[in-house]
Amino acid sequence: MLENLPEQVGRALQGQRAGLENIALYRLLLERDVPRIDIHSLAFENMAAIPIRYTADGDGTSPPLAWRGVPQAATSLVLMVEDADSPTPRPLVHAIAVNLERCDGSLVEGALVSQDAAAIDEVEIGLNSFLKQGWLPPDPPPGHGEHRYAFQLFALREGPGFSSVPGRHELFDAVVERAIAAGCLIGTYERAKREKADQDEVENAMLDQEVGPAAA
Known about the structure:
Mean pLDDT: 86
Order of helices and strands: HHEEEEEEHEEHEH
CATH topology: Phosphatidylethanolamine-binding Protein
Strand content: 15-25%
Structural class: alpha+beta
Strand order of the largest sheet: 2-9-8-4-5-7
Low-confidence stretches: 116-120
CATH class: Alpha Beta
Helix content: 10-25%
Number of helices: 5
Largest sheet: 6 strands, mixed
Number of strands: 9
Distance between the termini: 41 Å
Radius of gyration: 20 Å
């Protein structure tokens, strides 16, 4: 969606970022400390690049996730993925999933992509920042630099149920009031500079021209 945005716009917005301190986990930790849940992915390490397959420049499917260390007192788990570097006042929400089983577990690749995929794994999907259910793949503005995507998992104690399609505000309130443990996996993604991509295309075209006559 943003791949055709002029890089000058992205560079102009480099100083405008939501901030890691505004993701749900950090806001919770300002209220109180909680035990940690280990959340990880077979697709990328913490603070490492998210493979292009899981972004708007690839297939756009959601990555596999797994977790362990859920406390026995938990009654449910919720997942929220936020872009800490979106050029917006608040982090952009890329996915919400609620009422996950209250135990160590996982989500398979693609589990957050669509309602059909969600139904297969019995995952209840909330609204992303585009007011749609499902996975919003990383899509940073060209020239804006590296973005950090926080995959946050929260264990909740007993409390009111969620609406049929919860959004960030509803989930955030539940986290602050009811979270008893939390974990975070951060993956990064940055679009390649267009100048380099254009240069590569020119070099490849010149190489084809040089090889062409020889091959004939």
